[in-house]
TrEMBL record, chains A, B:
PANTHER family: ZINC PHOSPHODIESTERASE ELAC PROTEIN 1. The active site is at D66. Zn(2+) 2 binds at D66, H67, D211, H270. It comes from the Bacteria. Belongs to the RNase Z family. InterPro entries: RibonucZ/Hydroxyglut_hydro, RNase_Z/BN. It is an enzyme of class 3 (hydrolase). Zinc phosphodiesterase, which displays some tRNA 3'-processing endonuclease activity. Probably involved in tRNA maturation, by removing a 3'-trailer from precursor tRNA. This is Ribonuclease Z. Signal peptide: none annotated. It catalyses: Endonucleolytic cleavage of RNA, removing extra 3' nucleotides from tRNA precursor, generating 3' termini of tRNAs. A 3'-hydroxy group is left at the tRNA terminus and a 5'-phosphoryl group is left at the trailer molecule. Keywords: Endonuclease, Hydrolase, Metal-binding, Nuclease, tRNA processing, Zinc.
Length: 320, 320
């Protein structure tokens, strides 16, 4: 499993960081997921190994411009470069107005169908690109969600011992069970194929959070996740100065939460554009603050950098 | 007078070229004009010596995304970085819907007032940043205009000989005439101060055209312009292959027009994203094609490159 940041800046781009967007995929899958799409995402994509033809779905955390102003341009470029496959966009209801209106007012035609799914209407996991995806409601100035990606179809063996105990003898049924299908036994009872799998590894999971001033809303999901990607817009000192109105998290606040749920890998991102200099506005101050409270593996997201989660759940930053 | 390209690609960005936007200003003025605002214009601006605080006005040629998808992000960033001064946006009527709707649906608030002026409603020149700006209707798939910038307030002396001939003696009136004011003489007659100026140089002018498949629509304006900045999306061979539907100009078509009106400086831009490689898709093929038909000063626009028009009307490319 790997993910690449197309942007790691909050609000406005800087010379070194674009606004928010992230690509996520399973290494064995051709298709990938895009989470958020700030302005300039399609430009970053030109420098990364993901193609618009293989984009499986788009997930938007919330409507703020630094998370979605690149969406219509990206859709238009996908069309201009020949995409024909339908595309589903999951996100806040406003997108279902914003995108068609923008297309109409700018005389833009897409050569493929798009579908919007209101995040509030989701009542079961989304199955896409080898993931089961669910949402968690966050706390921000506008409705905002985290997207929780759990690996599906992980390598597995048939649990032959369990099959024998259940009296399911070797035969055509084993093939269906191997595929994870529901199977009707001779006695009329229904079994779920997946219940007779022995997984080679645990299913890995990653939470990609949107803007949020209450990391504890992720408590339940984060307790079993391998990786949490979450905003740390400010140091605590700057958060105190700015006040609660922007509804963002500080590095300290996020780090304390990650430590409390014993999260193995924390990736901080969405840094205020004021960071990038030296002294108190160095990105290192955010890192130092988080390290005081969090003792797991800490990463500070960088643009166009790819992070790989191996089958043991270990996260590493790949060299560009 | 100088101008800087923020983007020179048609339709989609490439690794080397962003989509259309241009900054234009008089060297003696702090304020500048933005013509078109494709996605990523604000990103390019971070690498150029123009500030959003000093942006005098925005001029949009037409509604296609590669000319306006960066507009709302740029407006939002101007607000986030502290702009308070009002801003006027001149362009197609659809912008008066597109911008407020995008701001509303994405919960974006600007800390300064914006005003939209429908290009079709303009009945006199716009006076801005030392220019008098007028429009010329072009031919494209949607309504599209060129913006014609003529220098104002150029350095001048009082024409003392003419003043004496008119019997206007040295005194307080001369100050008003120097300012270009209307003045009432002792005999009750009205004179225009500007009529008694001796200009140090001719007023320079630049036409910035939008997408257009009929360069001859610019005949009248181009006959007296120092510079025409115009799209040359294709070579003629590619234009023939693509057919007339996109309604763009070829390098040959534009060059023939420029030669016919004896234009001194032609800047070609808005190159199809297919250009950038070698052979028939090299940018040099566009240059070679244009040079066969146009014998004035020819420039192929480059991103983040500044071109300077001196007081003699000579255009040169500045070293980055």
């Amino acid at each position: 499993m790997e993910f690449t940041f197309f942007g790691t800046s909050a609000g406005t781009p800087t010379k070194a960081r674009n606004v928010t967007a992230l690509a996520l995929r399973l290494k064995r899958e051709k298709n990938w997921c895009l989470i958020d799409c700030g302005e300039g995402t399609q430009h970053q994509l030109l420098h990364a190994p993901y193609s618009l033809a293989n984009l499986a779905a788009v997930f938007i955390t919330h409507v703020h411009g630094d998370h979605c102003f690149g969406l219509v341009g990206l859709l238009a470029s996908a069309s201009l470069t020949g995409r024909k496959a339908p595309l589903t966009i999951y996100g806040p209801a406003a997108l279902a107005k914003f995108i068609p209106l923008t297309l109409e007012l700018t005389d833009t035609y897409l050569c493929y169908p798009i579908e919007f799914v209101d995040v509030e209407s989701l009542d079961q996991d989304i199955e896409v690109a080898g993931f089961a995806v669910s949402t968690i409601r966050l706390s921000h100035r506008v409705p905002c969600h985290a997207w929780h990606f759990v690996e599906r179809n992980i390598a597995h063996q048939l649990d032959q011992e369990k099959l024998c105990q259940a009296g399911i003898e070797k035969g055509p049924l084993w093939g269906k069970i191997q595929q994870g299908e529901q199977v009707c036994l001779a006695d009329g009872s229904l079994i779920n194929g997946r219940d007779f799998w022995r997984l080679d590894n645990e299913a890995r999971s990653i939470i990609v959070a949107g803007d949020n001033d209450q990391p504890e809303l992720l408590q339940q999901a984060a307790a079993n996740a391998n990786v949490l990607i979450h905003e740390a817009t400010y140091t605590q000192a700057i958060a105190d100065k700015v006040g609660p109105e922007p509804m963002h998290s500080s590095a300290m606040q996020l780090a304390k939460f990650a430590q409390q749920v014993a999260l193995p890998n924390l990736v901080m991102t969405h840094f205020s554009a004021r960071f990038g200099g030296e002294g108190k506005f160095s990105i290192r101050t955010l890192q130092q603050e988080a390290k005081r409270f969090y003792h797991g593996e800490l990463f500070l997201a960088e643009d166009l950098t790819t992070y790989q989660l191996n089958s043991k759940g270990e996260l590493s930053k790949l060299k560009p």
